[in-house]
């Protein structure tokens, strides 16, 4: 199961390997890559088996690094440690971020709507009709965003209470 490199045979040292004034042995450079290229590739699961002793259960997603170190050092689980629910925290953070973005968008569209309404009051009839079409579109966008905001508020506030 473990890879053991082949043992190298001792080579005969004769005078043909020595040069005139050099005391260094001349041999081809071996970087170890030529042997590695000939090895068959193994799936990652094989390496996981090699590096774990098999006596320890694998770390769970909720287990912190400190808990794992304590368990590995003492051989038994650490006491009084609560798992962290990372998925719930990430989901809550995403929803709060979405809530902030939607609120900003709602405020910008409201400001734009107010500007368009002011322009419509000062314009002639044809321009006023075009601006009123824009107003109705902005009002539809605001209604959709308002509904999204209400849903996000209820989700974020509901999760914070639990």
UniProtKB/TrEMBL annotation:
Keywords: Coiled coil. Residues 1-11 have a biased composition (Low complexity). Residues 16-28 have a biased composition (Polar residues). It comes from Ditylenchus dipsaci. This is Uncharacterized protein. Residues 128-155 form a coiled coil. Residues 1-89 are annotated as: Disordered.
